[in-house]
């Protein structure tokens, strides 16, 4: 990193006041300190900025093709799924208009995006199961590192609080903090996991907002970035079925250029085994840094991921952070698969987009059971990520 001194600034500009000069110096310093950042990092910074809001014109939008720049239109390739997903599993809901429509990008071979793969009611069902059924033991969550989460799960406790069934006087109301003095969890599987800060006992309605991820199937060991072979729990049936259906539908899907470059996914869908999953729960201010998912032994099998709740900006780059990433809108109901070369690409989520919750996920007097889930997704995005490990 190069240092900027006031002489750098002086030589280029004259100032009306000492204040102006100080401001210019501060600006120059902040610009110079980013000179050596990678292309991926620079892009993350752009989309993370809230004031002033970034320019979104270069974000790829598969759902409103007409709104894309010409440069993006030139890289978008419309392709066909092998099967209509709704014929493979009832969990996708009613069929879409263009049931086999999906997309890839010329310069990101192996990427497959299926916009609006799930009907609104199917989306509601998955959101419910991600909160009510999967965010509890035996699946581990970030909260387990610091809290003694009850076996019923944090969602169950939150529901009891919302229904007035428990109050702060009840012994079960506050989830206690773990005694870390003699705990192997100090290191254990959480060694390198994203850390919790501001630890304190909280009402369930606040603790539920601290839920950041759960892992299912083979449990991930954050310390050495491997899967714990001895810790394998049953894979949740619904998200396993969804991922397997996607793997079948994207068999033989891809794009080859005139010059022979490109990629077609040849992974046999019927061989796909959903073995490890991560569910990410993002609050509006959360983000996910650039990374490559490379702990799986089997890197030929596609990684299947789907989005629920608020939309996000998803960045997809190359095998190093120096490759400038492309930005893509991912919305509730979208499926994204990473196949072949795309499996080795850096990707991340620099921003959740506020005010993008679809109307059908908001509270609705005709569906009072949905209210509590609406209260959660009203400020959140959920991402389900399914991998075959072996
Ligand atoms: C991940 C991941 C992307 C998303 O969990 O590894 O890349 O869309 N998630 O949240
Ligand atoms: Mn990932």
From TrEMBL:
Names of required cofactors: Fe(2+)
Residues of the Fe2OG dioxygenase domain: 273-390
Record's keyword annotation contains Metal-binding: yes
Pfam families, per database record: 2OG-FeII_Oxy_2
Annotated stretches, region: Disordered: 1-20
Keywords in alphabetical order: Dioxygenase, Iron, Metal-binding, Oxidoreductase
PANTHER family cross-referenced by the UniProt entry: ALKYLATED DNA REPAIR PROTEIN ALKB-RELATED, NUCLEIC ACID DIOXYGENASE ALKBH1
Protein name in UniProt: Fe2OG dioxygenase domain-containing protein
Organism: Basidiobolus ranarum
